[in-house]
Amino acid sequence: VHLLPLFLHPEKSSSLFSHAFHGAHRKTHLTYSYLSCIYLSVRSCAKTNPIYRPPQRLQVPTPSHNIQNHLTVMAFRRPLAFHHECMLVIAFVLVSCLAGAATAKQTGQLTVFWGRNAGEGTLREACDTGLYSTVVISFYSVFGHGRYWGDLSGHPLAGVGADIKHCQSRNILVLLSIGGPGNGYSLPSSASAAAVADNLWNAHLGGRRNGVYRPFGDAAVDGIDFYIDQGAPDHYDELASRLDGYNRFYRGRKGVRLTATPRCGLPDRRLGAALRTGLFERIHVRFYGNDTCSLGKGGTYGVVGQWEKWTAAFPRTQVYLGLAPAESGVPEGAQGTVAVYLKYLYYDLLPKVQKANNYGGVMVWDRFADKKTRWSSVVSGWA
């Protein structure tokens, strides 16, 4: 509707384009490029071949009435011919524009990590913002040596189970992330991988066994996220296979979803073997922290280059762009992250990463920083 006057009155295209641009709601900068293509093609066409140029009768020095009428008809049809020519040019340009625009997509999927700071509020509060499609509880950080425990950094366990159910009732996935920045975990053997899988199943997922403590009561998370930042890389592929095996207890649905949150360097030293199993439906790539491929270190160019490697390496897996709204929300040992400038995210970074067919959305580290900056309240419309 906003663009129709450009075709009807191309001689006024300069002012009309401005109106059309401001009247249309831009979701991404691609819309700007799309409108620019239309504007340039229409303006060029209008300069050379005005669509509604007043027709001129031809002055033909001949007494033949039939010939005169014939040429007059031709003269009146000529502007219409130019009109068709212009429309063909415009159509060609539009196809070219759309061919580029069609490669980028928004999913609206925003994932946030919760559980690292008591000041971030409750899990229910995070879900009630309406910003997130997935919330990841962090972390189940002690495992592999006969001890199993999670650290929610000051959050009382009472009420978390009810909050999990509340989030799920709003169609928000709730995952439990294992690992984290601490050093209280590892998988020294295949037996330890089996034991950890058994504990996760009976303590946090759909299993039940006498003597196994369930910190969230009868609430069950929707899956397990692998955030392995310390220790040896051994046996995480076996852990993933065992966890995926529990899906046999669910009829027609996936009860145990597997995701991973590796550093941006590829291949990931600790999760490489696990990711190669093909069992992970999502990968949240961390483009923050001290890695040279992080946004703070490598800029947009470095992020996009590494992003293309990740999306090409795992074409059947949804890949998420992991960012940190503020340095205060970065895990221990990763203090190099800088705040993400929204204008660069909007105009530059997101349009580039969204061209990947397996772009999944944006992952936010973490809820505490996000609550302070209100970063996701802006970015949620662009993801």
TrEMBL record:
Localization terms from the record: Secreted
Principal place of residence: secreted
GO molecular function, one term: enzyme inhibitor activity
GO-annotated cellular components: extracellular region
A single BP term in Gene Ontology: defense response to fungus
UniProt keyword Transmembrane, yes or no: no
One Pfam family matching this protein: Glyco_hydro_18
Presence of keyword Secreted: yes
Keywords: Disulfide bond, Plant defense, Secreted, Signal
Coiled-coil residues: none
GH18 domain boundaries: 108-383
Family: Belongs to the glycosyl hydrolase 18 family. Xylanase inhibitor subfamily.
Protein name listed in UniProt: GH18 domain-containing protein
Organism: Aegilops tauschii subsp. strangulata
